[in-house]
Amino acid sequence: MPLVDRFGRVHTNLRISVTDRCNIRCFYCMPAENVQFMDRGNLLTFEEIERFVRVAVPLGLRKIRLTGGEPLVRRDLHHLVALLAAIPEIDDIGLTTNGLLLADQAQALFDAGLRRVNVSLDALDPVKFQQITRRTGYEQVLAGIREAQRVGFAPVKINAVAIRGITEGELVPFAQLARQTGVEIRFIEFMPLDAEGQWGRDRVLFGKEIIDLLSREVQPLVPVGQQDPHAPATEFEFADGRGRIGIIASVSQPFCGNCDRFRITADGKLRNCLFSHDETDVRAMLRGGAPDQEIAAAIEASIAAKNEGHEINSARFVQPQRPMYSIGG
């Protein structure tokens, strides 16, 4: 039976966090210093992740995205990719990375079966990059993007968080990069998942503003036809066909009604929503000898209990206790 919640949404897409560690400190995600990371012994092993995926496949799982923290700091990640790529029912494996280590690992990941990669990069100005990440490494990220394209990843996407008062000046340069290189730029509205409580609605640079500015400053953007209704991004292309832009308007235009995603944290906690306050301890079952049927039942129960939406725009919204790096991006 498929994984269907009480609102009729079918879940086929799993996000797997492989670590909460990261080699940068973006202010919208992590504290600048003194981060308390999970004990490595609490992280799911690659074999435990593989088993969880194999249990979920008969329930309809077909797509996987590997996340962190920064997933490429997890040693030998290409081995996990190979394990997952060997599961016949899994027809799509993606990776979200900050790109710092991508140049060195792109070929091994591609050879293991990974085909899609999203690079988180919020600014093309090196000074602005360091302001946001509170670390250096801008040139390494660009090198990682170039290497991903060279080895054959398609598409290569850049995820840029849109923050009012900080990233407005990056919009046109990103659009020009898309037009010149073929990478797809996806602007993500700043969400309330930061560890330092800096989020405020007045700091969200809204998707419609981005489309209006780029249509005015570059050339008109038109919606792409036949879009995946489950995809978080609404896709546009420039009128001359050169350059594609995606908008993930999580705040101004929530897409909860079409959500097909669930996730498992690096320490083995199953979550039915990025903003969920409830978790199911799958690691305890995996390490406690639970049969596949018990794990499958826990997955079904988690999905069945999923809320209608994240409620960011209501007075009922409460930010999850875990910040983004701990949940998995």
Essential attributes:
single chain, 14 strands, 329 residues, twelve-stranded mixed β-sheet, 10 helices, alpha/beta, TIM Barrel, two-stranded antiparallel ribbon
Could you give a quick summary of the protein structure above?
This protein is 30% helix and 18% strand. It has 329 residues and is α/β, with parallel strands linked by helices. The model has no long low-confidence stretch (mean pLDDT 93).
CATH homologous superfamily descriptor: Aldolase class I
Summing up helix and strand content along with how strands pair, one would put the structural category as alpha/beta
The chain-level mean pLDDT equals 93
Q: What is the CATH topology descriptor?
A: TIM Barrel
Number of helices: 10
CATH class equals Alpha Beta
State the total count of DSSP E strands: 14
- Please indicate the count of domains: 1
| Spatial strand order of the main sheet | 9-10-11-8-7-6-5-4-3-12-13-14
Which percent range describes the beta-strand content?
A: 15-25%
What kind of sheet is the major sheet? 12 strands, mixed
Rough outline: globular
The CATH architecture term is Alpha-Beta Barrel
- The H/E string reads EEEHEHEHEHHEHEHEEEEEEHHH
List the helices and strands and how they pair.
Layout: E1 3-4, E2 10-11, E3 13-17, H1 46-56, E4 63-67, H2 77-85, E5 92-97, H3 102-112, E6 116-120, H4 126-133, H5 138-151, E7 156-162, H6 171-181, E8 184-189, H7 207-217, E9 221-223, E10 234-238, E11 244-248, E12 261-264, E13 269-271, E14 280-281, H8 282-287, H9 292-304, H10 324-327
Parallel strand pairs: 3-4, 3-12, 4-5, 5-6, 6-7, 7-8, 8-11
Antiparallel strand pairs: 1-2, 9-10, 10-11, 12-13, 13-14
